Amino acid sequence: MLLGHVFALVLAAAPPDLSAVGIVMSARVEARAAVLQSGGRTRVVGVGDTAFGGRVAANESDHVAVDYDSGRVRLRLAAGAATAPAIAATASSPAAEDTPMAARAMERREIERRLGEESGRILAETTLVPAMDAGRVAGFTITRMPDSTVLTDAGLRAGDVLTEVNGVPIDSLATLIGLWPRMQTETAVRAVVLRNGQPVSLSVTLR
């Protein structure tokens, strides 16, 4: 009876619609991030960050733990939610060369190494805003991102609106994160962004 009362208090402390829609994993705990949703808002947070009135205590492969004054809430990943290694929600760069149509070639091992080193900064400094079209998410505007990362080297820039990756329309943050497992076997990554209102194709060949 007492356990049930405590459980009820924990639920009351968290927003009733709070859910975990994705986990961005990394071998380094400090580089992991959770994708939380509540009240129509989405937050990407790491351990120790605050979100929706609580503090993130743990990001594991199957759940997120958030501490509130009255106790800890364990959020299981929702059905169909995405789990991905630390790649972060896609970002873009202001310092890429002015030849966005030119295909770039990058070593897969080098990308993985750099993501491991840079993912914490990318997650902390990148801001995405949904781009709406007729009331639906039609992509994400990258309003802020750090310079000199693997993502900027791939040709992305702040201000780009990411609309498609390898033929998949980016209609939610979960869709974007969920592309990571597919990228493990792809030999090229092709993205379509809107830049200054014009569609631009970016292509990276993975060696």
Percent range of helical residues: 10-25%
Q: Please give the count of helices.
A: 5
What is the N-to-C order of secondary-structure elements (H for helix, E for strand)? HEEEEEEEEHEEHEEHHEE
Strand portion = 35-45%
User: In total, how many beta strands?
Assistant: 14
* Strand-pairing-aware structural class: alpha+beta
Mean pLDDT: 76
Poorly predicted segments: 1-12, 80-100
Shape: globular
Distance between the termini: 59 Å
Order of strands, main sheet, comes to 3-2-1-7-6-5-4
Could you tell me the radius of gyration in angstroms? 18 Å
Biggest β-sheet, characterized? 7 strands, mixed
Summarize the structure in words.
With about 210 residues, this protein is of the alpha+beta class. About 20% of the residues lie in helices and about 45% in strands. The protein contains 5 helices and 14 strands. It has helices at about 1-15, 110-125, 150-155, 175-180, 180-185, and strands at about 20-25, 35-40, 40-45, 50, 55-60, 65-70, 70-85, 105, 125-135, 135-145, 160-165, 170, 190-195, 200-205. It has a 7-stranded mixed beta sheet with strand order 3-2-1-7-6-5-4. Strand 13 and strand 14 form a beta hairpin. The protein is globular and about 55 Å long. Mean pLDDT is about 75; it is low at about 1-10 and about 80-100.
Summarize the structure.
The chain is of the alpha+beta class and 207 residues long. The chain has five helices and 14 strands. β11 and β12 form a beta hairpin.
